[in-house]
Design a protein that fits this description.
The complex is a heterodimer of chains A (366) and B (328).
Chain A lengths: L1 H33 L2 E7 L4 H14 L3 E6 L3 H10 L4 E4 L5 H6 L4 E15 L9 E2 L1 H9 L8 H4 L13 E5 L4 H13 L1 H6 L12 E3 L1 H11 L3 E6 H7 L5 E3 L5 E2 L3 H18 L18 E9 L1 E2 L2 H16 L11 E2 L2 H11 L3 E2 L2 E2 L8
Helix pairs in contact in A: 1-12, 11-13, 12-13
Chain B lengths: L1 H7 L8 H5 L1 H43 L9 E2 L4 E2 L2 H32 L2 H15 L3 H28 L14 H25 L3 H9 L4 H12 L1 H17 L2 H6 L17 H8 L6 H34 L6
Antiparallel strand pairs in B: 1-2
Classes of the chains: A alpha/beta (366), B mainly alpha (328).
């Protein structure tokens, strides 16, 4: 599965590169005449390390296109797109119908990469890899399971001596895409959670203490025996934190990893096709080897561009990003989107227009 | 200016009369006065403008939640239910706790530096205390998470619980992170401000006050308590108020250790939340209009709390200043 996926990705990337080159050839006369094209963008902080690599890389390949990105947070990104002060935005949470309507013009959402959220914990004498069912996680965050020795947790960890410690729940205190994805997962698993708490970049937590940022959550967990918290996968890997293996919808125990996250994203692609909407949740997605706590991050692009040169540069950059750019993702611990999502993105990019005509028309022959 | 100088007469002997009647000097005087007045007014304008902007941006939330915003305890961005009470409580409680911890220490340090320490020690210690003020608050916050909070959890909180556990103030589970941790970290941040201002105030107390106290047979303690502190009390209250202002608005270090849970709990061990921390935490990812508006209303509440604190402080300084000074 993993190898096959990689091959597919590699194939796609090569195809994308070729297409990118053709695109480049087509764009030089237009862009060259207008000189330097500067695109301004703002939004989510979670994908910022990847995006900034993309912008630098793209600028190296296309010295006439420069992209400035301000990682001011998803909320800020959405507001800037709404005001029209940036050429595109970025958000970890997909926009609701209401938010899209408030934009005043059609905005397309483009899923770029997927992120996974790991459950990290601090149990003296217990190694990484304790097993938690999705229901365990819900009950812990609801404040219903309060002891590590609780039968519901012990049932799946027969070989592990779980201490009789009180569980200290730790969550993010700052509004974040990580929280959005995590609460989406809890809402998908539990109707109770969906009704009482819901999903959002910040929610009214039934239990626990709040840490600021991944470092705040990890710090609080690290210093409090019995604590459990949720942090981005990259953070767990880089800091070698203990993480839980979570039972997915198919009943498998899956560790958070890039491949299990991409598998979740592939599950999401099916839903996207069914619903004809990219705003699907890949939290608790069905399918084998799927890590259940994951989510997409999105770029927000106005569908009808008002400046032909800028619009063209933007559309070509996006095309490059979802093909070539994806290759940079694993190195920075983001899960690349699977081929099925790439082709959905391609379809969306082809709907970006200037005065009614598609900006990527030259590429549409694929 | 000219007139006031003539009427006051006090400086007349120092400034040559010829200078006062020179026309161009009068013109520059006017310009000088206008510029200074403009600068002073600018501060007022900025403050008023900020308040106006805050209220304007908070209008949707004010209209939707009304006065209930002030006593609602819930903060639920998913269901758009917002109230400021828990945040206002956390702000005031953590600041007062910080003052309670920092003022005695700062005053003691200031008195020691001026009255007791040999000059060399005083210079060195003052330097170290002022160094404390230059530590970025995010560093203090990280130190709070990794060093102070575990120490509170392992040592201080269990000790407090075992002695005063019967008080609700020291009951419940100990996390390390919580209102107490917020108060302690704030106290550390207030220390350099309150102690260096107090030190200058105490240093400014005339030597004659001290000598008079000694002449009446006072011990050093009596001299400090009855001659120095009462003489400088206006300034000392000012020092405390400066510290309180810092405490109310401090964000980064507090948010890292206070636990960021909007609740009102009797126990100091429980997490709490301050307004400044909530703003720093939630503003960047607040996506709906009513959510942003509610956050801005929260900022307006903080603004009003600061205004009230300053008004009370003015009143205190005025009252103390009006009272007869010192026992001597």
């Amino acid at each position: 599965m993993r190898i096959a996926l990689r091959r597919r990705l590699a194939g796609l990337a090569i195809a994308g590169f070729v297409v990118g080159l053709t695109g480049l050839g087509a764009s030089i006369p237009g862009a060259g005449a207008a000189g330097l094209v500067t695109l301004n963008a703002a939004g989510a902080t979670f994908p910022y390390p990847l995006y900034s690599r993309w912008f630098a890389e793209y600028n190296r390949l296309h010295p006439d296109v420069r992209i400035n990105y301000q990682s001011i947070g998803s909320g800020g990104g959405i507001a800037q797109v709404q005001k029209g002060t940036v050429d595109f935005g970025a958000s970890d949470a997909p926009l609701s119908d209401q938010q899209l309507a408030a934009m005043g013009r059609p905005i397309v959402l483009i899923p770029t990469v997927a992120g996974a959220i790991a459950m990290t914990y601090n149990l003296p004498g217990v190694q990484t890899g304790i097993r938690l069912t999705s229901e365990n996680v819900v009950d812990i965050y609801m404040g219903r399971t309060t002891k590590w020795s609780d039968a519901a947790i012990a049932a799946n960890n027969a070989g592990t001596p779980l201490p009789d410690l009180a569980i200290t729940v730790v969550h993010r205190s700052d509004g974040s895409g990580t929280t959005f994805h995590f609460t989406s997962f809890l809402s998908e698993v539990s109707k109770d959670w969906a009704d009482k708490v819901g999903r959002g970049t910040a929610v009214e937590w039934p239990a626990g203490i709040g840490g600021k940022g991944n470092e705040g959550v990890a710090g609080a967990v690290k210093e409090t025996p019995g604590a459990i918290g949720y942090v981005e996968l990259a953070y767990v890997v880089q800091n070698r934190l203990a993480y839980a293996v979570v039972k997915n919808r198919a009943g498998q125990w899956v560790a958070p990893s890039l491949s299990s996250t991409t598998a979740a994203a592939a599950g999401g692609a099916q839903k996207m096709v069914q619903t004809n909407d990219v705003r699907v949740s890949i939290a608790y997605a069905p399918g084998p080897n799927v890590y259940p706590i994951a989510g997409f991050t999105y770029l927000l692009v106005p569908q009808n561009q008002t400046d032909e040169v800028k619009g063209k540069a933007l559309a070509q950059f996006l095309w490059w990003a979802i093909h070539d750019g994806e290759k940079d993702a694993p190195q920075l611990l983001y899960a690349p989107i699977p081929g099925s999502v790439v082709s959905i993105d391609e379809r969306i990019l082809k709907t970006i227009t200037f005065q009614g005509s598609a900006l990527l028309a030259s590429l549409a022959g694929r | 200016m000219l007139r006031s100088l003539n009427v006051g007469g006090r400086g007349g002997a120092v400034i040559p009369p010829a200078a006062l009647v020179r026309r161009h000097r009068a013109w520059t005087d006017t310009a000088f006065r206008v510029v200074l007045t403009a600068m002073a007014l600018l501060v007022v304008v900025v403050v008023v403008w900020m308040l106006v902007q805050l209220v304007a941006a908070a209008m949707p939330a004010i209209k939707r939640f009304g006065a209930a915003f002030l006593w609602t305890r819930r903060w639920d961005p998913v269901h758009d239910v917002f109230g400021s009470l828990t945040f206002a409580y956390g702000t005031v409680a953590s600041s007062l706790l910080a003052l309670l911890l920092a003022v005695p220490v700062s005053l003691g340090a200031a008195v020691y530096l001026v009255e007791i320490a040999p000059p060399a020690v005083s210079t060195a210690l003052s330097f170290v205390i002022e160094l404390l003020a230059s530590i970025p608050s995010v560093i203090l916050g990280l130190w709070g998470i990794f060093v102070m909070a575990p120490w509170l959890r392992r040592v201080v909180e269990p000790a407090l619980a075992s002695v005063f556990g019967w008080l609700p103030l020291f009951s419940g589970p100990t996390y390390g992170i919580g209102l107490l941790a917020g108060g302690v970290i704030l106290a550390i941040m207030l220390l350099p401000i309150v102690s260096s201002v107090s030190r200058e105030v105490i240093r400014a107390v005339p030597q004659s006050q001290r000598e008079a106290a000694y002449a009446l047979g006072a011990t050093r303690w009596e001299m400090i308590r009855r001659a120095v502190l009462p003489y400088g009390r206006t300034g000392l209250i000012g020092a405390v108020i400066l510290g309180l202002g810092r405490a109310l608005g401090e964000t980064m270090a507090v948010t890292m250790v206070i636990g960021n849970r909007p609740q009102i709990s009797a126990s100091l061990f429980q997490p709490a939340y301050t307004i400044a921390a909530a703003l720093a935490n939630e503003f960047s990812e607040a996506t709906t209009d009513i959510y942003i508006s509610a956050l801005i209303e929260l900022a307006a509440v903080l603004f009003v709390i600061s205004l009230l604190v300053n008004a009370v402080a003015r009143w205190l300084v005025w009252r103390v200043g009006a009272a007869p000074r010192g026992a001597l």
